[in-house]
Structure formats: structure tokens, C-alpha cells
Specification:
Elements: E1 10-12, H1 16-21, E2 31-38, E3 41-48, H2 52-73, H3 80-87, E4 89-91, H4 95-110, H5 120-128, H6 133-136, E5 144-146, E6 150-153, H7 166-180, E7 186-189, E8 193-196, E9 201-207, E10 210-217, E11 220-225, E12 231-232, E13 238-239, E14 251-258, H8 261-271, H9 276-284, E15 290-296
Antiparallel strand pairs: 1-9, 2-3, 3-7, 4-6, 5-6, 7-8, 8-11, 9-10, 11-14, 12-13, 14-15
Keywords: FAD, Flavoprotein, Lipoprotein, Magnesium, Metal-binding, Signal, Transferase
Cofactor: Mg(2+)
Pfam family, one: ApbE
Length: about 300
Amino acid sequence: MTRPTRRRILALAAAACGLAALGLPAAAAPLHRWEGVALGADVALMVRGGTAPAARAFFAEAARALRAVEARASLYRGSDLVRLNALGRLAHPGADLVEMLRLAGAVHAATGGAFDPTVQPLWQARRLGTPEGPAAALAGWDDVRLAEDEIRLARPGMALTLNGLAQGFAADRLAEVAARHGLTDVLIDTGEARALGPTGWPAEVQLDGAPVRRLALRDRALATSAPFGTRIGPAGDGAHILAADGRAVRWRLVSVSADRAALADALSTAAVLMDEEAQARALAAFPGARIEARLAL
């Protein structure tokens, strides 16, 4: 279970035609927009209504918040996660990293291990085409020691990835920033989506450019995973989402909505490795989470 930068599989639109197609009122209020890049994904922020100064202030703080999440969870840029993977230990971790790992543990338990950030060595082995047996032996969430004052990986060579929830976590952080600025009608797209406000924002789940489902997001988050949206391995034929325990990919695409983008992100990542019964059990652990789209292999 891991995800690098991938082709966009969630299209978010603010055009009046997109609103009308979903039975939503056309936006009469001004629309303010910001675009950037974080965690290997394009980021777009849209604010409906509010003043231009309030939107600019939100965008400025949002850019800082994105950098802060990258500083904790990126697999690049000398982040806290990079240092943890290199040293096997991180003293006095930031609260954001602890929160992400606690959520990872909860989703790991609910999904029967389908969501497992310790898969990183195996992902690298598959990407490079090197023997996977030794890398697979390094996986094991039970060997991650998590406390407020220290994170420790129990065995040398272990490494974590948070690519299955960090983009969603970033969206949740930006939602908090928007609320602090008094903005109540906002769409946040960090690769996963978080919508604020009751009016609704149109979203379209896509696969290879073809629409799968259209829906309106109202005070809700949406995340979509497609294992073959990006392929890894020397032959370029491997799914970029994989399981630490060797279970096979079961779905071409799964889209999950929830009250938090990080949770939707993690659940959608795990769901592509699970049958329908296991998916239902996992979702039951998080009231309000539900599958919005699903395509079989």
C-alpha cells in the first residue's frame, strides 16, 4: 500500500455547467482560486463568496500549512519521515506526524492490515525489480513504536510511507485554515478533496479520462484510488498500490467519502486490496464513511 504521484482520477469543477448537471444552483458569488504543488500533487483551492483580501489571506496561510505537512510526511526534502526512515528513530516528533501515524494504526486495524505504511521497502524493491523477499520481511506495523516523545522502528531496514493518507491530511489541515479565516464555502483539492459548505461542489470520479461517477460534495471529503493509475517496476506493469502481506489488488478503482480527507484517503487505498465483505467491516469502524464508486478488475 503506497502511492506516488499519479494521474488525476478526481476531477473537481466550479463551472456553472458542472453545478447545473448535478442540480446545484449556479454560483452567483465571486470565485477566488489558488493553485500550487505539494506532496507530489497539484493543489487547487477555490473559495466561493467572501472578500478578495480574506481569500488571499487564506491562500497565504494555506501555502505555509502545505509546507508544514511536507516537512513532516514527505518521502523527500529531508522531512521528519525521511529522518525516521534513515535513523530508525525520531525523538520529539511533530504533532502532525504523530496524528497521521495514529490514524494509520487505526485504519491498519480496521482493514485487517491492508493499510500498512511499513510496506515502503517492498514498494522500492518492486519499483527497482530487486528481490522482494528480504524487503517483505521488513514489513510489520506491530514493530512501529509510537509515543508522543518518540517514534521508533524496531528492526533495522524498516521504513514507512504515508503516501496513502498525507494528501488527505493536508486537505484537512487546509480546511482548518479556511475556517480560521471565516470562509464557509470552500473546495480543497490536494489530490484528495475536502469541501466546506452546504451548497455543494461538483466532483467527478474518473478512470483513464472516462467518467465513473458524478456527485456533489457538501461538508465532506472524497478520495479515489486506482492501483494501475500509475504503474511501477522495470517493465512498468506493476500496480503502485500493494500490500505488505502479499494480497493481490482486487479493484481497478475505489472511491470513498468520509468526514475527513485523511480517513477517506487511507480507506480508499486499502479498499482496492479488499473484497466487499472486508470493505464493509472496515467502513463500519468509521461511522459515516462510505464507498461512492467501485470498479472491478
